[in-house]
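RECORD TYPE: inverse folding
INPUT: structure tokens
STRUCTURE:
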């Protein structure tokens, strides 16, 4: 038995895990508080400031996760292997989480007045090509 580790799909798996974790964060942490702030559902006026502060904190974490996911995406793009099934799955998961970001970002910005991030501009330019 060999002690060697086959890291053929390291970049693919890294991107899959990061995209999945980011998606779960957006769906479980960001979206619910965002929805609550937008609808004011079950949100007493005296808790509004606290909810906005919490949204800001979870959004900062969401941006950190997005940067890590995008970095993993760049590593995969640099490696190539576009036809590989694992790479294809990783790219699809990354694309899906970017769509979710694109949906949530303007909604968060409208509530928090968050400036556009340089990383967002870079990815927007890359994916426009």
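DESIGNED SEQUENCE:
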């Amino acid at each position: 038995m060999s002690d060697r580790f086959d890291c053929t799909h390291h970049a693919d798996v890294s991107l899959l895990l990061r995209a999945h974790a980011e998606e779960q964060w957006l769906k479980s942490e960001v979206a619910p508080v965002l929805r609550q702030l937008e609808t004011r559902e079950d949100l007493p006026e005296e808790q509004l400031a606290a909810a906005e502060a919490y949204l800001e904190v979870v959004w900062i974490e969401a941006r950190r996760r997005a940067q890590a996911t995008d970095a993993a995406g760049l590593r995969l793009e640099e490696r190539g292997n576009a036809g590989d099934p694992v790479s294809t799955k990783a790219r699809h998961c990354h694309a899906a989480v970017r769509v979710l970001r694109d949906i949530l970002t303007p909604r968060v910005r409208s509530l928090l007045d968050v400036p556009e991030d340089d990383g967002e501009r870079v990815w927007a330019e890359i994916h426009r090509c």
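NOTES: DSSP finds four helices and no strands in the chain.
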